[in-house]
Amino acid sequence: MIHDLQNIKEQAAEALSKAADSKTLEALRVKYLGKKGELTAILKQMGKLSAEERPKVGQLANEVRAGIEQMIEERSAAIKQAVLDARLQAERVDVTMPGKAAPIGKAHPLTKVLDEVKEIFLGMGFSISEGPEVETDYYNFEALNIPKNHPARDTQDTFYISDNVLLRTQTSPVQVRTMEKQKPPIRVISPGRVYRSDAVDATHSPLFHQIEGLVVDKGVTMADLKGTLELFVKRLYGDESVVRFRPHHFPFTEPSAELDVQCFACHGEGCRLCKGEGWIEVLGCGMVHPKVLSICGIDPEVYSGFAFGIGLERIVMRRYNIDDLRLFYENDLRFLDQF
Ligand code: DAH
Question: CA-to-CA distance for 246 and 228, rounded, in angstroms?
């Protein structure tokens, strides 16, 4: 029996030293120390021993049990430590590593400049009024003094949806809608998308943006138009900007003009930027045609007004020196990231 007990101790020591996890360890505890375990099995046979052998064997059995218990305890502690070490290793964070940069979106250059334009006009007491992109022939042409067969229709290649419904070719129809529902004094700008059936190239796109402006009140004159638009250009391009008004024709204004700003690059000499002109066109404008006022229910004997239409892409291109309109619509981050 003494021999058996020593055997058990050796076997247990050997098995325990190999136990790599707590499950195996628990199985070994049951195997050696459990109620049906090997040590218990031997102790059950103690009755067969003589009175003098019994205490000796009993003492040894107790030592073996205590020894195995201690080994289990040590092994258990070692396993717990190993598990913890492995976890710490796996979850290790290198605090010196650079973080992952989260890409942050930015406003599109068209939006940025539009916001500036809005800010300038809001500062002059204008408010913002928008209209539909799908328009009727009446608002886009007829009410603006552009009857059927008028040559102005040819210059605005229109996307028709049906005979009378179209994608607006200009933001000017918002003038009509505004005058129909609002009595003077009126001071609004109307930014928005417009559509023309143009082939895409560096300066043309079937979709682009305009900002319409309209002022109607008693006693509004061409001097108000000039003062307002000159101030706008100076706010947008800087106080040193030089502007000129050049006579032009639009069916819905009389008289009509185009506003040019002197080329920033050559100061009027003529260069590549201004295509040798010395001046760069910024917008179309004029005194609202009395016919248009009448059509909209405003008495031209009492009220007068001025209107203007700014091409947004154009002023943004000038602002940032962009020479190809297509860049605005391609959503190439290498381009958009620069603003
Ligand atoms: N609607 C014109 C265009 O698309 C631009 C324009 C010119 C608007 C003169 C106006 C204006 O309000 O008075 O070419």
Answer: 16
